[in-house]
From TrEMBL:
Record protein name field: Energy-coupling factor transporter ATPase
Superkingdom of the source species: Bacteria
Gene3D superfamilies with a match to the protein in the record: P-loop containing nucleotide triphosphate hydrolases (3.40.50.300)
Membrane topology, as annotated: Peripheral membrane protein
Keywords: ATP-binding, Cell membrane, Membrane, Nucleotide-binding, Translocase, Transport
């Protein structure tokens, strides 16, 4: 599924465009077009989430990330502009209802939304809403729980509230996966987890993407985004500040700093090393590749010295 944003602006004060007539929409657009920027949570956002891609979303706190992703399954509708799923406008209730089944949205701290008496019922909530047979619901619950590393037979009848925080998040995640979404939209999925669970979750998300799932992930960790994303979107004050490959987006550290972000540590260190005269050929560095290239450079310098050549 391709999700396209066409000149989307959103104001929490302005409400939704969905129920307005064409004339009313034009009038609103004209009126709100002159409103000060501060009013807008999103402002004139045009972009597309391509099928199968991993789109990372970054931005300073309050830059509009959560508002943006809530447009992706029709939970929030634009004040101005349109969101299209494979060309169909989410302003149409039927389209939005269908898209909601294909675009799985995992909120920040999703464990706070667990509600059922048993883990099984919680994970089964979405599939049951889709009016699937109980046999199919059970198949999906079992599979979704397996995917997140939980055993349905052992945990299905337990209360979700008796589980550890990490397990609760897995249950919440399984509830979205049980809908078998085409697109997975994650708002800070590893926030608040311990380092081991963090790494587990990120590996899990990477596996979904490797299987062909489209993933949109909001994160404050530039390192995680650099590692996982095909493209990164940077929002600033509700506007698209940058959209490109991690190497493109992290190339201009000064510009990023101006919107309250910092390039990943290995990337920033590589920049400093270049300024100090090191030759570092790659566009994007993680710790391991940076260590390899520094070692190669130092080995070359030592060999040249031992051979009597100038370095
Ligand atoms: N329910 C709401 N009512 C009014 N204003 C809101 C509401 N939710 C968000 N806003 C405002 O909209 C703007 C964008 O907020 P949003 O939560 O989308 O940003 P964010 O980038 O996700 O922030 P964070 O990183 O802190 O989660 C902010 O100015 C915020 O104060």
């Amino acid at each position: 599924m391709r999700l396209a944003f066409e000149a989307v602006s959103y104001s929490y004060a302005g409400g939704e465009d969905r129920k307005r007539s064409r004339k009313a929409k034009r009038e609103r657009e004209a009126a709100w077009g002159n409103a000060p920027d501060a009013v807008w949570a999103l402002r004139d956002v045009t972009l597309a989430v391509e099928p199968g891609e991993f789109l990372g979303v970054a931005g300073h706190t309050g830059s509009g990330k959560s508002t943006l992703i809530q447009h992706m399954n029709g939970l929030v509708h634009p004040t101005c502009g349109r969101v299209l799923a494979d060309g169909a406008d989410l302003a149409d209730k039927k389209v939005a209802a269908q898209v909601r089944q294909s675009v799985g949205l995992v909120f920040q701290y999703p464990e706070n939304q667990l509600f059922a008496n048993t883990v099984y019922d919680d994970v089964a909530f979405g599939p049951r809403n889709m009016k699937l047979s109980e046999v199919e619901v059970e198949r999906r619950v079992r599979e979704a729980m397996e995917l997140v590393g939980l055993d349905m037979d052992a945990l299905g009848e337990r209360s979700p509230f008796d589980l550890s925080g990490g397990q609760q998040r897995r249950v919440a995640f399984a509830g979205v996966l049980a809908m078998e979404p085409e697109v997975l939209v994650l708002d800070e999925p590893v926030a608040g987890l311990d380092p081991l669970s963090r790494a587990d979750f990120l590996a899990l998300i990477a596996r979904f993407h490797a299987r062909g799932m489209t993933v949109v992930m909001v994160s404050h960790s530039m390192e995680d985004l650099a590692l996982l994303s095909d493209r990164i979107l940077v929002l600033s004050e509700g506007r698209v500040f940058a959209l490109g490959t991690p190497a493109e987006v992290f190339a201009d550290a000064t510009a990023l700093k101006a919107v309250g972000l910092a390039a990943p540590a290995p990337q920033a260190f590589a920049s400093s090393l270049r300024e100090a005269g090191f030759h570092l050929p790659r566009d994007l560095y993680d710790e391991a590749t940076l260590a390899t290239d520094i070692a190669a450079q130092l080995a070359g310098a030592t060999a040249a010295k031992e051979g009597g050549a100038d370095v």
